[in-house]
């Protein structure tokens, strides 16, 4: 694969005795969307969370193997996880804006990373909200609480918040599943736009959504990746019968 944004090599994740992710080696392309699909409990979210070390926060979780961005192994204990999470952002299933103003939600990260200049912060807020297709809806109410936004707007705000610290990769865990169909379609459109600038890895249970938004798809089953290929191939002519059974709704 040309232009790899991130690779895993023999990645395993354990919760105590239980192994949730088994020996996964994958390359993720730059500026593409990769969908992680598979039945409930097969390890998609665990795998996703390990990519920016969010599993560190779960007591009893243990990760072995390598996760490479360029020549940096993220899984190295010396990795600065704050800087790592600036490079690899995360958007969760439920919008989780801070209980602060719309402006402060976006400015928080850049300020934390040392940007103090008000003009610069204003520009970052405008750029991030514009990229998240939310500027027009919020430019006249930046000082209002983020919680005054609708669920769909809050999710786009969370995407804007992750963009504000200039990541190269954005991880998304079912980012549209808690939204109404119109808000969900807006988030999908946004993902399609964002891939011009960012590499996106998204967990989704929605097969149509995976087919619409992603260029590559990995099919997970019981902690393993059964098949990883171009999305068009996975959805029209998968190599593995288990993939075919899953995408055609025969199990899961
Ligand atoms: N914090 C945790 N502690 C212990 N076990 C966990 C924890 N989180 C997940 N697991 C277990 O690890 C396995 C994989 O879970 P994970 O949430 O990664 O799967 P998933 O494919 O994302 O599922 P879903 O699609 O339902 O979100 C499951 O058996 C789950 O019960």
TrEMBL record:
Task of the protein: Part of the ABC transporter complex PstSACB involved in phosphate import. Responsible for energy coupling to the transport system.
Compartments reported by the entry: Cell inner membrane
Span of domain ABC transporter: 6-247
Biological processes per GO annotation: phosphate ion transmembrane transport
SMART domains with a match to the protein in the record: AAA
A single cellular component GO annotation: plasma membrane
InterPro entries the record matches: AAA+_ATPase (IPR003593), ABC_transporter-like_ATP-bd (IPR003439), ABC_transporter-like_CS (IPR017871), P-loop_NTPase (IPR027417), PstB-like (IPR005670)
SUPFAM superfamilies with a match to the protein in the record: P-loop containing nucleoside triphosphate hydrolases
Origin species: Fontibacillus panacisegetis
Top-rank taxon: Bacteria
Protein name: Phosphate ABC transporter ATP-binding protein, PhoT family
Membrane topology reported for the UniProt record: Peripheral membrane protein
Signal peptide from the UniProt entry: none
Gene Ontology molecular function terms on file: ATP binding; ATP hydrolysis activity; phosphate transmembrane transporter activity
Keywords: ATP-binding, Cell membrane, Membrane, Nucleotide-binding, Phosphate transport, Translocase, Transport
